[in-house]
Specification:
The protein contains 13 helices and nine strands. 37% of the residues lie in helices and 19% in strands. The structure holds fe (ii) ion (2 copies). One fe (ii) ion (FE2) binds next to loops.
Length: 380
């Protein structure tokens, strides 16, 4: 068994997650990436099995490791079998592993079963090299952020300047993910999403202002940039996006409101302005069942909430359509959005979009079967 496994690992070319997703049923494959989640469970016969999620630059793959699988430790140049139940064995979460598996089918969806698990040399294959990044450059996003700040006046300009740059929040904010799955779940995702919401919300504010509605444009921009502040504590990068304990038990809306209000107090922000911004933060999910304790009660909060919802949906549409079999026009039914998504009619007047590179296509991972079927939109 051991020799066969070695031979297989050497001979089989490692595929990317994106490539594995395109394999037909019954295909065998090898894939290399970072373990973003590993959960031990028990089957009906009380035998252990594992749910595993593996991330590489091209997406995330969820699958099963059954009790008859083989676990190999390749660290240090040797290949030794190890028992995953042994606490002294290697910690696989956040580590680079090689997986060999087969594409099966479960309830009409592909299911990935892994029969050989290789804990590889972590120096040779450092986990951070498999982590996905925003397709937008750091420089571009920082320039966009500063351009938005430049549109503000006191007290909001000084407050945001103090929060992000004087207090050093920027260091984390620019690399944080916006989610652990579903949308912008990669390095720089929180900044990319916040900028997109701010630009969308600003355009909406300008439209209503032109129509004569009294909308505070600066409050909209500042609220949009701050709306997901709580994600700094709700998620971590280890090195792939993970939900923290506070994220699980308090959620980013509550955490964000608390953090914002204490920053506002420390910076001496006018309590009325602080409350208006705090209201944008707590109401931004727009529905109580999505985690907002109150619904948007001001045009500024309605605009940020709408822009946030739209940014998630457009991102989700794009990632689903990019991962869709080219022969198909529509996705499967997506309970999260309560609809199937359609490719639509391409706009002939636009130049063809460039094909996404290996790590550049936003969220191939969204097509992971099961994930989108069970998730709730608490990460918007
Ligand atoms: Fe949110
Ligand atoms: Fe958001």
């Amino acid at each position: 068994m051991e020799r066969a496994a070695k031979k297989d690992m050497k001979e089989k070319k490692n595929l990317t997650v994106r490539e594995v997703r395109q394999l037909p049923r019954d295909s065998s494959f090898s894939v290399l990436g970072v373990v973003s989640r590993l959960t031990r469970k028990k089957d009906r016969n009380d035998k252990p099995f594992w749910d595993i999620a593996l991330t590489d630059g091209s997406g995330e793959l969820e699958g099963k490791i059954w009790s008859n699988s083989n676990w190999w430790n390749l660290q240090g140049g040797e290949r030794l079998p190890f028992d995953p139940l042994d606490e002294k064995g290697p910690n696989l979460e956040g580590a680079t592993v090689g997986l060999q598996g087969k594409v099966a089918e479960f309830r009409d969806q592909p299911q990935y079963n892994f029969n050989d698990i290789y804990y590889v040399d972590q120096e040779k294959y450092p986990p951070h090299s498999f982590v996905r990044r925003s397709p937008l450059s750091d420089e571009r996003m920082e320039a966009d952020f500063r351009a938005l700040l430049a549109e503000l006046h006191e007290p909001l300009s000084g407050f945001l300047e103090a929060v992000f740059f004087r207090r050093g929040l920027w260091k984390e904010f620019k690399v944080w993910p916006a989610a652990v799955s579903l949308h912008h779940a990669y390095v720089g995702g929180l900044l990319e999403h916040s900028l997109s919401v701010a630009e969308g919300a600003k355009a909406l504010a300008d439209h209503y202002i032109a129509q004569g509605t009294p909308v505070d444009r600066e409050l909209v921009i500042a609220g949009a940039l701050l709306h997901d502040l709580g994600k700094l504590d709700a998620y971590s990068m280890t090195p792939v996006p993970q939900m923290t304990i506070p994220g699980n038990v308090a959620e980013h809306i509550v955490i964000g409101y608390h953090r914002f209000m204490s920053l506002a107090e420390q910076e001496g922000l006018d309590p009325k302005i602080a409350l208006a911004l705090g209201h944008i933060i707590v109401s931004h999910h727009g529905r109580r069942e999505y985690g907002s304790p109150v619904l948007p009660s001001t045009p500024e909060a309605m605009i940020v909430s709408a822009a946030d919802d739209l940014d998630f949906k457009v991102f989700f549409w794009r990632s689903q359509i990019e991962g869709l079999d080219p022969r198909h026009e529509m996705t499967d039914y997506l309970p999260l959005l309560e609809r199937r998504l359609w490719r639509g009619v391409p706009d002939q007047s636009l130049p063809a979009a460039p094909a996404p590179g290996p790590a550049a296509g936003p969220d191939e991972e969204l097509t992971t079967p099961g994930r989108s079927l069970t998730a709730t939109p608490d990460e918007l």
